[in-house]
Specification:
CATH topology: TIM Barrel
Bound molecules: phosphoenolpyruvate
Distance between the termini: 11 Å
Strand content: 15-25%
CATH superfamily: Aldolase class I
Shape: globular
CATH architecture: Alpha-Beta Barrel
Radius of gyration: 17 Å
Largest sheet: 8 strands, parallel, barrel
Number of domains: 1
Number of strands: 8
Length: about 250
Amino acid sequence: MNKKLVIGNWKENPSSVDDAKRIAGKTRAAAGLLERVQAVVCPPFPFIPVAVPRKPSANYAVGAQSVSREEGGAHTGQVSAAMLRSLGLGFVIVGHSEERAAGDTDGAVSAKASRALEAGLTAVLCVGEQSRDESGSHFDFVRNEIKASLAGIPAEKARHIVLAYEPIWAIGAKEPMAPADIHEMSIFVKKAFADVFGAEVAMKTKVLYGGAVNFRNAAEIVTTGGVDGLLVGRESVNLPGFIELLKSVDKIQ
Ligand code: PEP
């Protein structure tokens, strides 16, 4: 079965390891009861070990929020893809708008994605426009961002990429993008990916939506928006809400 993918980006939360253990444990328990959804939690680096289960856990995996663009060595403060893999991780987010705003260029994003893919991780590549206007310049922006963020990635690694379309104006906002517009953008993003790696691999590539998703709007975003899953910020550390969100997506036939 082609399961929906729901990734929780905890960002710089929670503030204690005990809370991280609790959120991860309850998310894992809830994920074990799902049939059509795989849940992934992406805690801050120091909390990764308490989120990784000792044994493989149904519908539950752990990812990281970022990764070094280097392979290892003298890079103070960096965490390599190999380190993440050795902790049992399957996923890493690259190109999140908050990292781009802090200085990551498309070149840095493609280097991070490359390191992740070389280490055997799935790279969750975030793209999205800052704003939209009537001229439709956001289409060009997103197309160019996808191309530049994938530069240098070999075609044989393309099937280990997940695309997360996150309009920056919807991140942290009150309301998500309208589901009909999400539908349009999910098709557009897939087409831009197909322009780089071909239609065959693009057809199998998951496109997620992120930006102000919560338990109330998640199911409609997935169904009307036609996406393969969600990238969730705030609601992923709000336990009751995140569990309801997972259940609501799991009900989609
Ligand atoms: C995000 O930062 O990726 C995100 C989607 O945040 P939020 O769900 O809080 O809007």
